[in-house]
């Protein structure tokens, strides 16, 4: 179904630029990605340290695969125009952030969900079989990160209580002096890529796939976080002493007093809120 939809859209937009075509065919997927629980946490300014650390782990695997395949295909006629390692490469920045949060042995502590493995596998597959499809992934990832980098950096810094820029290297693009001008250059280079009709259709399909893979990664990361939170809550309950548990269960007077204390605390918080 997705393939037929993308092909139809491609036929309707044969006279438009590739960057605009990708923007149009991925519009719905873009909205869905922004509304995943993980991305909503960023938008609300409520991202947690654990969310950010796990996201960095997945980004490391994804960018490792993407940048290795871009490097390997840097002379390919469809890849060379959008190959900007000095300006866009993220791998070294992510490694720096991971070392900050996990220590020097961070490589031994990385945990990623199955969706991240699938994403990396897809990047390596097309790097070998259809290098032109890398254009879709590079555009989706790099320009997305470049567009929201500064805003997301501030949100993350405030949310997890970072005092400086350490741990936020991923969002910094020191090789890009003007994000807006660079994005114009990147789109221009991308639109100059010469593709046969079948190749162009494939790139558009791959752009939709890129968003879907990102959505799967975000959802799987949130599931990992939910499992971790549940385990933490269970451990917290387990660590209660039998005497404390029994006292709460078997003393009606104590339960009533605790209820009153909670009610008073709730009223107090409500008053201070106004």
UniProtKB/TrEMBL annotation:
Region of interest (Disordered), residue spans: 1-20
Zinc-finger is among the record's keywords: no
Main location: endoplasmic reticulum
Location in the cell: Endoplasmic reticulum
InterPro entries, alphabetized: Haem_Oase, Haem_Oase-like, Haem_Oase-like_multi-hlx, Haem_oxygenase_CS
Catalytic reaction(s) noted: heme b + 3 reduced [NADPH--hemoprotein reductase] + 3 O2 = biliverdin IXalpha + CO + Fe(2+) + 3 oxidized [NADPH--hemoprotein reductase] + 3 H2O + H(+)
Protein residues bound to heme b: 23, 30, 139, 187
GO terms assigned for molecular function: heme binding; heme oxygenase (decyclizing) activity; metal ion binding
Gene3D superfamilies: Heme oxygenase-like (1.20.910.10)
Keywords, ordered alphabetically: Endoplasmic reticulum, Heme, Iron, Membrane, Metal-binding, Oxidoreductase, Transmembrane, Transmembrane helix
Name of the top EC class for this enzyme: oxidoreductase
UniProt cross-references to CDD domains, sorted A to Z: HemeO
Sequence ranges of Polar residues compositional bias: 1-16
Family label: Belongs to the heme oxygenase family.
Name under which the protein is recorded: Heme oxygenase
Classification lineage: Eukaryota, Metazoa, Chordata, Craniata, Vertebrata
